[in-house]
Amino acid sequence: MCTTYVTPLTPDNVCAQKGAFGGTYFRKIKSGVTGETYSDAWKEFPDAWFEGMQVKTQVASATYHESRNKYGVKCGSGLDAWEEKGWIEPSAPFGWFHWYCRYFMGLRGEDDQRQISRWNKCAGLKSGRWVRNLVTKVCRAQASYDDEKVSPVVRQTLLHWGYELTDEDFLQIARSRGMLSDEESGNADSPESEDTGAQQKSGGTKRSRAQAANGSGSNKQSKKE
Fold it and tell me: Is the pTM of this model over 0.70?
């Protein structure tokens, strides 16, 4: 396994332990990019990733089931749309998560920087559109960072990109955007501290002082994988 670049969640976390892609990600496909048909693509990865799972219904199902997603909702669009937008490369015909599974196993290629950049634009703490969108919505709702009632579609989208919001990340983003007071972020006595707020338990103070920040609180959902 290579650890040069990994998202917060490993591939087996996403599919097996969490529940993603409606159970369909590694279904049989006819690629519009390579022109080839792919089936049983999941078999190139370690059996341990899928231990205890029903692969036919949880990983390679031909039919999308919202109930198989952790947050019980459907998000994003399908492979045809991803291909049409130019997001799919021949090296990973199923999409970003396919690339990440292979990258996690140590495979390196010419598309790596583009795929890493895509992740950063979606879930990176500095510029991730959807993680910042979620933080804004949590603040507006004056909810806890892990309140699943706040934007389950965005949460499911982020899960598909190997990310789930943590208390530490929430505090970092909310504080950097002026959404929390020093008291709420746990920094009343030390404005520059990065550690105090991260020690708070998830059931603690509700994050408030929501502010609209550059439209990042939009209700428009991601169309990316």
Answer: yes
Which tens digits make up the pLDDT trace of 78-95? Answer: 999 999 999 999 999 999
Please report which residue ranges of the chain form alpha helices under DSSP H.
Answer: 11-12, 55-58, 79-84, 96-104, 112-123, 129-141, 152-160, 167-176
User: What single string gives the DSSP state of each residue in 167-208?
Assistant: HHHHHHHHHHTT-S-TTTTT-SS-TT-SSTGGGS-TTSSPP-
Residue with token string 């087996």: 12
Backbone angles phi, psi at 208, to 5 degrees: -130, -150
Q: Indicate the burial class of 185 (C-beta count within 10 angstroms; 0-12, 13-18, 19 or more).
A: buried
Largest CA distance in the chain: 61
CB count within 10 Å of CB 73 equals 17
H helix and E strand count, the chain: 8, 2
Which of 15, 101, 26 shows the shortest CA–CA distance to 53?
A: 15
Mean pLDDT of 96-117: 96
Q: CB within 8 A of 189, min separation 6: which ones?
A: none
- Cβ neighbours for 190, distance < 8 A, ≥ 6 positions apart: 196
Residue 214 corresponds to which tokens in the numbers above?
């550059």
N-to-C CA span, the chain: 24
Neighbours of 72 (CB within 10 A): 12
Report which of 161, 151, 221, 117 is spatially closest to residue 21, judged by C-alpha positions. Answer: 161
Q: Could you tell me the two tokens for 55? A: 């692969």
